[in-house]
Specification:
A hairpin with a 5-residue loop joins strand 10 and strand 11. The chain is α+β, with helices and mostly antiparallel strands. Helix 3 packs antiparallel against helix 4, helix 3 packs across helix 9 and helix 9 crosses helix 12. Among the domains are: 88 residues, 2-Layer Sandwich (Pseudouridine synthase); 85 residues, Hypothetical Protein Yqey, Chain: A, domain1; 112 residues, TruD, catalytic domain (Pseudouridine synthase, 2-Layer Sandwich). The chain contains 14 helices and 18 strands.
């Protein structure tokens, strides 16, 4: 189960299955930021006029939250004035559009001087950039600690994914550096405020970096002031809760002082972990590229969702669309406004969610949760490349590809290699 009341039943939120056979080759990724390149593919270009300043930024080794904080301070605006289409990796070199609401201002961004954040170009537009306002992302990734002559072997696997699609799992980035944001989200949904604070700040929950031991021990002892002094400014949620507790606030009030986008992200991680388990079930039963009667399907181009009834399933055109990856079955990002499937799919999803203790009623009533939606179980892989070589850091195999919005390159890579990236120096309880 996900239940945080019994750690022995806590389920790993990460993907448990592969679509292809277990890879014969191993390798390492993200050893250097420059080995992992991501460029956002915009959904539209700014018009040149409007109250929103669009910035095409390149960041390196910087978390999304840190980038937003720098922009907020530079332009002297609030969080609501900043828009973005998607959140990009920290340990990478990434390029993306960000909008800043500056009505009636001629302010430019040319004086942006922030280490690790560079402005490539800027323009004006009439609306704020919203989540999902992107076509997708282009990735270029160097795999290290691998024989460059093995590139053809990886290319064969990459071509298979190009033909049949990629499981649309949520990757490790979704669940934070401690791989526990889904647990924080579960506490929010269940309104277990002290448990959430303990998972966030205490020493008895999920693994954490060794540098945090003393700060977490102080928290467990109720010594909030000494704990606060040991957290960095970047650890905003932790310090926000501690300052609130020092003022005498309840755990519930302290948690709700955390910015709403962070709380919503934690709940989204809880939904994402459940989605991964539903996707595991589809792959286990060889149903990833199938559409069942009662499935909620989605068209890749229009993003339109509808129920697959028997009549449409019997048409040759619809079956061809399935084979061409133009339509795919979906899994739940559970919420009150989510389109429900029917038939066998409804029964299967209900069994999976019940088995992991997912609180469907709680998430529907939680004010921090989003409306809910359906997510494609598979996504197309396009513009694939594979080459290899040797540089100043040794041999490598480089792969490049495009993915639709919301998809994770690391999920593609786990179908190609057994990733042997360095383990974190974490304390495990």
């Amino acid at each position: 189960m996900f239940s945080t009341t019994d750690p022995k039943k806590t389920l790993d939120p990460l993907p448990q299955r592969r679509l292809l056979s277990t890879p014969d080759l191993s390798g390492r990724i993200k050893l250097r930021n420059e080995d992992f390149l991501v460029e956002e593919l915009p959904l539209y270009q700014p018009s040149g006029r409007g109250d929103h300043l669009y910035l095409f930024l390149q960041k390196e080794g910087m978390a999304h939250s840190e980038m937003i904080r720098h922009l907020r301070q530079h332009f002297k605006v609030g969080d609501r004035d900043i828009g973005f289409a998607g959140m990009k990796d920290r340990n990478a070199v990434t390029r993306q559009l960000v909008s800043v609401h500056l009505p009636g201002s001629e302010q430019k961004a040319l004086d942006l001087d922030i280490q690790g954040l560079n402005l490539l170009w800027s323009d004006r537009h009439s609306n704020k950039l919203r989540r999902g306002h992107l076509e997708g992302n282009r990735f270029s990734i160097r795999i290290r600690d691998i024989d460059p002559l093995k590139a053809p072997q990886l290319q064969t696997r990459l071509r298979s994914l190009h033909r049949i699609g990629v499981p649309n799992y949520y990757g490790i980035q979704r669940f934070g550096y401690r791989c526990n944001t889904h647990l924080l989200g579960e506490h929010l949904v269940n309104a277990t405020w002290e448990g959430l604070a303990s998972e966030l700040l205490g020493a008895q929950g999920s693994p954490f970096p060794k540098r945090q031991i003393k700060a977490r021990e102080y928290f467990d002892a109720g010594n909030y002031k000494d704990s606060l002094h040991l957290w960095s400014r970047k650890e905003f949620a932790e310090t926000t809760v501690l300052r609130s507790l020092i003022r005498g606030d309840s755990f519930e009030k302290a948690i709700h002082r955390i910015p709403k986008p962070t709380l919503a992200f934690w709940i989204s991680a809880y939904q994402s972990a459940a989605f991964n388990r539903v996707l595991d079930h589809r792959i286990e039963h060889d149903l990833l590229d199938s559409v069942l009667q009662g499935d909620v399907v989605i068209r890749s181009e229009s993003r339109k969702q509808f129920i697959a009834h028997q009549e449409i399933l019997q048409t040759e055109e619809f079956q061809n669309d399935i084979k061409a990856l133009k339509v795919s079955a979906t899994g739940p990002m559970w919420g009150g406004h989510m389109l429900r499937p029917g038939g066998e799919t409804l029964r299967n999803e209900a069994e999976v969610l019940e088995a992991i203790g997912f609180n469907t009623e709680g998430i529907e009533s939680c004010t921090s949760a989003e409306r809910g939606t359906r997510r494609p179980l598979r996504i197309p892989l396009s513009n694939i490349e594979m080459d290899s070589g040797v540089d100043n850091h040794g041999g490598y195999v480089r792969t490049a590809f495009d993915l639709p919005r919301g998809a994770y390159a690391t999920i593609v890579l786990r179908e190609l290699i057994d990733d042997l990236s360095a383990e974190n120096d974490f304390v495990v309880n």
